[in-house]
Amino acid sequence: MTDIVAAAPEKASRKKGLLVPLVATLVLGGGGFASSYLGFWSPSGLFAGGEKAPVSTEHMSVEFIDIPTIEIVIPGGRSRSLVLSATIETDTAHKGEVTHLMPRVSDAFTTFLSGVDPTAYDKRGVLEVIRAELVTRTRFVLGEEPVKDLLITEFRFK
């Protein structure tokens, strides 16, 4: 009989032990919700990290420099010619360098385009291949840093 009486007080202390953490959780959760609702802090701010320093865009301003129009006679019996106009995308810091070396860029383009097989122009996707090769040749002449991109503004057969 003494065993039964001793077991009863354990159940009461177990319920009391669960009540304290439950009340603490509710109070702290309510306080956290209230502080974020009132704008004292943001939960998404915890995951975003610290504020980043503003990036200076002064050296990153975009400049577009036109390449002189290139007209090449395509060899073969059809007597066609290719007209190509393009623009180099660079930044303000490298504009003078790109403008100064423009004759070399035009020469690299003319040399490449005159060496393309005439039947290649009739195939699908030739413009993407030519553009990729012209970007490679432009970066070979000017370097990696000045050339951000090459934009083909005119590609037609005459």
List keywords for this structure.
158 residues, alpha+beta, 3-stranded antiparallel sheet, 5 helices
Question: How is this fold's topology laid out?
Answer:
Elements: H1 2-37, H2 43-48, E1 62-74, E2 80-91, H3 95-100, H4 102-114, H5 126-142, E3 149-157
Antiparallel strand pairs: 1-2, 2-3
Helix pairs in contact: 4-5
Write a structural description:
Helices cover 49% and strands 22% of the residues. A hairpin with a 5-residue loop joins strand 1 and strand 2. The chain has 5 helices and 3 strands; from the N terminus they run H-H-E-E-H-H-H-E. It has a 3-stranded antiparallel β-sheet. The mean pLDDT is 84. With 158 residues, it is α+β, with helices and mostly antiparallel strands.
Could you give the count of β-strands? 3
Question: What is the global morphology?
Answer: elongated
Give the helices and strands as they follow along the chain: HHEEHHHE
**Whole-angstrom Rg:** 35 Å
What share of the residues lie within helices?
A: 40-55%
Low-confidence parts: none
**Termini separation (Å)?**
111 Å
How would you summarize this macromolecular structure in one to three sentences?
By secondary structure, this protein is α+β, with helices and mostly antiparallel strands. It has five helices and three strands; from the N terminus they run H-H-E-E-H-H-H-E. Strand 1 (62-74) and strand 2 (80-91) form a beta hairpin.
